[in-house]
Structures are given as C-alpha cells and as structure tokens.
Amino acid sequence: AGKGPSRREVADGSVVELVDCPVPVLAAVIERCAVTVANDSGIGHLSSAVGTPVAAIFGPTHPALGFAPRGRFDRVIEVNEDCRPCSLHGKKLCYREERFCFTRIQPTDVADIVGEMLLQTSELSPALLIDRDGTLIVDKDYLCHPAGVELIPGAAEGIREARRRGFRIVIVSNQSGVARGMFGREAVEQVNARMAELLAAEGATADGIYYCPHFPGGTVDEYSLACDCRKPSPGMAEQAAKDLGLDLRRSWVIGDKADDINLARVIGAPGALVRTGHGPQQEAAVRAMGLGNSVLVANDLQGAIGSILVKGEA
Q1: pLDDT tens digit sequence for 159-203
Q2: Helix (H/G/I), strand (E/B), else coil: 234
C-alpha cells in the first residue's frame, strides 16, 4: 500500500466501468482478473465461483450468517462492531449515527490484504488433475486388484514431459466401489500403489493421488453419503491445492467423463476430454453442455498433454 501509482498516474484507458453487465459477461471478465475487491456479496460469490480470489468487504453482514465466500485465498475484510450481524439481507436499517462496519475499514487496510493475496497466489504452481480409470490406466470396471493395473500407452511419457515443463501431477478419482461394498479402501490404495510403481518404472511420478470413496445410496453406511469430494465437486482438487500449493486456475483437469469437465468448470480451470475409457460415449454429452470449443478433446492422455503444452507456448 502506498507504493503503487496514484489515481493521477493511472493511464487513460486502463480503467473500464461496467454497468448493467450480464452475469455471463461479468463472470468472464472476473475470471481473467488476479483478484476481485467487492462490497457486494453477489459479485464476491461470483468471483469465488470462477476461481478468482476475492477480498470481500462485508460491512454489516457476518460470517455466522453464511455469506462468506469459500475459495482458498478469499478474504473477508470486516470490523466486529457489537451490533453485528444486522443486515437481514439489507432489510434492516442501521440505527447508529454512522455505519462504522464500513467506515472503519480503511483503503490502506484493503490494499495491504490484497497485496498479501497477490503474493500468495503468485507462488503457486499449475497442475494437471488427471482422472485414473479410463484416462491414466485401462478402465476394467471397478478394478480392485493391483494385478489388473495397466497403464494406457503413452500416459507415462506424457506425464514425464508435463513435469519437465513445470506442471505438478495429481491423480483424482471417484472410487464408489467402496461405498457400494464391492471392495475396501485398502484395495483402492493397493491399486494406486501399483499404478505409481508402473509410472515410476517409466520415469514418471505423481505429486499426489486422491480418491473419493463415497456414493449416496451405497450399501456401506460409513461411505454412503453426499460429500464435497466426489467429482464434479471440488473437494479433492481443493485439498490437493492446499497440500501442494497449486494454482487451480492455471491447472487443467483431464478425464474421460463429463464429471471431469464439470470439475474443471467448478474450480475455474480448463478441461480436456480423452477418447479412451468412457470418452467416446461421453464426448457427445460434453458437447451438449454448450461449451463450444472451450473443451479440449484428444485421443488419449498423451495427446491431451501435448495439446496443453502447445497452448502454453502460444
């Protein structure tokens, strides 16, 4: 704060005012930003939804009301006046002589917090969030034995090249067979260990391997529930981001199902569909989602990674 250009030094044309902007257009603008500063909860949540960190000036509202955005680097800037929370969504007028919940937040305070947010996000790494069955290994329908693990040809080579070019590698998979009572978590972990062993034999490694054992309506009570980790929910991606220091907006999600593409949309990342596994059946479903040419489609993981690396050079 205090070191940047004054308002008089801001170049003409560097400030754009948007009035009555349609939500899809506004979302696309916010998605390209490094950070959003907002005192409107709608814009704050829109920013968080597209993956742009938001500094939310939530004056009369309060985190206990559930208004706080949920992104990893989102910050709520507030002062804890004794009269809070009071807003009732703006339907209750302030009875005090001054709205101290707003006026006691200084521009320098906001600038300092935004500066911290920008520094934090600048240190993050991009990643490839890769589906397991049908994308990285041959899909064998609820695979539960390590002897059945078979890498899809070229997958290890693609991962090797991506790591060389600066991408972290994260495997994220839904393993509902646990909730369905078909096998236990130990079986999933044995399969994952064998997959990692085969990758290592070809000089490729993953920085993290995550799986979701849940499925609503399953037969195992412990895992028969709605969760925030089953794709397309963002739980696994967000946990990996925390564990490994990832920038999800600069990352890619690669998979053979529409759920993988929807995960990409949820975390504000681009998505790639491969034609291995369920890809041939899912390609039409992905196109029907109305995403136009925004989804990269490739024959296999190696091809998808190659196209992603070419885009990175453009």
Answers
A1: 999 999 999 999 999 999 999 999 999 999 999 999 999 999 999
A2: coil
Overall residue count recorded for the chain in this entry = 314
- CA-angle at 267, arms to 265 and 270, nearest 5°: 50
Both structure tokens of 61: 């509202």
Residues 6+ apart with CB under 8 A from 118: 34, 35
pTM, two decimals, is 0.79
Residues 291 and 21: their CA atoms lie apart, in Å, by: 21
- Cα–Cα–Cα angle for 97, 102, 104, rounded to 5 degrees: 85
pLDDT in tens, 242-265: 999 999 989 999 999 999 999 998
3-state SS, one letter per residue, for 84-124:
CCCCCCCCCCCCCCCCHHHHCCCHHHHHHHHHHHHHHHHCC
CB within 8 A of 187, min separation 6: which ones?
Answer: 144, 145
Residue 191 token pair: 């399969």
